[in-house]
Amino acid sequence: QVQLVESGGGLVQPGGSLRLSCAASGSIFRGYHWAWYRQAPGKERELVARVTNGGNTNYADSVKGRFTISRDNAKNSIYLQMDSLNAEDTALYYCNARSINGILNFWGQGTQVTVSS
Q: Is the Cβ–Cβ distance between 34 and 19 less than 8 Å?
């Protein structure tokens, strides 16, 4: 069974940085799009960053220039480097892997990021 496990969340001051990790239990990096989503209380879940199977990346406007998504195929993992964090980044962050045919869709359990002074 494929599982995604996020880690790296925590409490950070405004302007600080965190690096989130998402590890897959199996080798699923080929044929998958990877993404980070987040959801704050009372808010809609939103796409934060995506890296496609072909290596293209895209970001939400709110994080562009501050966040970087990366992929490590050897470790079956993706990462989200988050810099210049602000309070609006506070949310539960989810890792997602979706097969390019759209049939398979895996989610991690979420890792909490709290930005507060």
A: no
